[in-house]
């Protein structure tokens, strides 16, 4: 293993409720300075995973290691290193933000009242420090929740759906805050989300959870820098076009979408060649373009591949680039 000790490591972690597995054989690592997003639909197992890491749910299988030490070997001091917004109690509406945080500071036993102003500043709520929390918008409460999780300067921050219920401006603020905590303070951030577009902008790595399984792990940098590009080709006879491309250009990696649109994952740098072959053989091309695979495509492909019952119209799986 290279680099600093991971903040969190999960090895073969599983959770069964009765006869159903909510999380199955999950292996993943979160490093300091990294934002890792668990992405999945409702019920995919995200919250269950976060709860197990926090010791709020017992796991059925596997091992969880925080900062190089197994969860079982840690005493209460692990909570000094971990901050979370999972299952945290609400705030007292009749108290101000500052009073609420003071209350939490006492519970945490942090003897530094100046932390309150620091964390309020960090989440952009300094101006609202002395307002009662019942007057706060949902976005302000969300940020106050993150402020509370940061009071004791944790090294690992665990956020369950941190942008839930926020408006676009609030989402951007929370996103920038998360990036800053990871980049400047080298905090490890593990968050859950069901919104692709958001995760794409905040995470360094994304783990796609589907029915309790980690079906794919993507490093955002790679996806952004190299991205999987492919040709989109529309003809009236997709099947004939595919045969032709196989014969003439040896194309093996392609997908025929249900509407007949063709995706070709080869010859991406020579679209003219592909178009010429089709046209020369009497197959007019109605549309041709080069596209980059978005995380959404990736997500759909990953979950479809994990789901044998689904039919995405794939003729031949494009395979890894
Ligand atoms: P959501 O975004 O809806 O919270 P999630 O990805 O966080 O979704 P989990 O809450 O982890 O999903 O739930 C995963 C599965 O485990 C679901 O099928 C859920 O019904 C089940 N589950 C979660 N908690 C319990 C419990 N206490 N008892 C029984 N089943 C549970």
UniProtKB/TrEMBL annotation:
GO terms for molecular function: ATP binding. It comes from the Bacteria. Residues 8-236 form the ABC transporter domain. Pfam families: ABC_tran. The keyword DNA repair does not apply. InterPro entries: AAA+_ATPase, ABC_transporter-like_ATP-bd, ABC_transporter-like_CS, P-loop_NTPase. Belongs to the ABC transporter superfamily. This is ABC transporter ATP-binding protein. It comes from Thermaerobacter composti.
